Amino acid sequence: MNKLKLVTCLSLLLPIAAQADFTLDSRYQDSDGDLVADIPADESKHVDPSTLIFAYTPVEDPAVYREVWSEFLDHLSDATGKKVQFFPVQSNAAQIEAMRAGRLHIAGFNTGSNPLAVACAGLRPFAMMAAEDGSFGYEMEIITHPDSGIDEVKDIKGGELAFTSQTSNSGFKAPSAILKADYNMVPGEDFEPVFSGKHDNSILGVANQDYQAAAIANSVLNRMLSRDVVSEDQINTIYTSQTFPTTAYGLAYNLKPELQEDIKDAFFSFDWEGTALEEEFSKSGEAQFIPITFKEHWEVIRKIDAANGVEYACQ
Question: d(Cα 207, Cα 237) in Å, to the nearest integer?
């Protein structure tokens, strides 16, 4: 089995303006310099599966999102002439492993795991959700319960802060860099870091006072508030970051080129009106898919990785 290793050296934090030294695993080529794997020039290496496997980033309960994506996947099936199966992944690592091993063809990877998926799994990102006016993104928030006794960021010192996973931008990478740069606070030295696994776990943990504080994506929080999973009187936001790009949707690099184009066309031709996708993602202001590039839209995330001393080793 292929193994992925994410090495994070918080003691080697760089200025936030530093640029990550981003390179692809040796199994991939990038002849055009767009920072993503090229489609193989050798046609014998192209993949044309009879069933396409799709996965959504594991930020919340996969059972919820199987139904949310069902109409879109029917549209994708019509556009490609292939069966499409929803794959309910439980972790970022499992999702990346599946694409690297050829078991996953189309996926939405969360903001922080995108560089690892691009570098180690051959992900070719091409789309992101956006509002009707084309605006996009979310913010990292540090949240507490109103009765936690934590009223501002400096109050976390000596306590604990819940992160989601080390591959998450808003759930680990961005808050780690911001806390070091702006507050001179380092996980493991100035507060105890705990890992919940997913954003909804962190949010529920704060709401139920299992965690003193947590770093989360406010797009997830907004959807949970809209579904009444948590209520506003259970959450107090003490920090809000700049806006980051949200989940990027992409393809396995070695899919047949014509199939890749059909899949892209399916994303951009999907009519959201009246669908479960619209019902769910309108809660965080999203209404369409827009084209993106990893090189441009993920530049700020690569800078955060550089600030955190992140290196990617694919084995």
Answer: 12
Using DSSP's 3-state secondary structure scheme, residue 18 falls into coil
Q: Which long-range contacts (CB under 8 A, 24 or more apart) does 273-280 make?
A: 275/71, 275/72, 276/67, 276/68, 276/69, 276/70, 276/71, 277/68, 277/69, 277/71, 277/72, 279/68, 280/64, 280/65, 280/68, 280/223
Q: Under DSSP, is residue 284 helix (H, G, I), strand (E, B) or coil? A: helix
In degrees to the nearest 10, what's the CA dihedral of 181, 293, 42, 50? 110
Distance CA 179, CA 181 (A): 6
Amino acid at 287: A
| Local structure of 311: helix, strand or coil | strand
**DSSP notation for 38-62:** PPPSSGGG-B--SEEEEE--TTS-H
Token digits of residue 108: 């939405």
40-72 pLDDT, tens per residue?
999 999 999 999 999 998 866 777 789 999 999
Cβ-based burial of 292 (10 A; exposed 0-12, middle 13-18, buried ≥19): buried
As a whole number of angstroms, the distance between CA 73 and CA 68 comes to 10
> CA-CA distances (angstroms) from residue 207 to 26, 133, 160, 231, 240?
44, 33, 15, 8, 18
Backbone torsions φ then ψ of 32, nearest 5 degrees: -100, 0
- The pTM of this model reads 0.80
Q: Is the separation of the CB atoms in 51 and 83 below 8 Å? A: yes
Residue with tokens 């209404």: 287
Tokens read off for 71: 């109409």
Are 239 and 179 in contact, with CB atoms under 8 Å apart? no
Mean pLDDT for 257-272 is 98
Coil, helix or strand at residue 239: strand
Measured between alpha carbons, how far is 137 from 170 in angstroms, rounded to an integer? 12
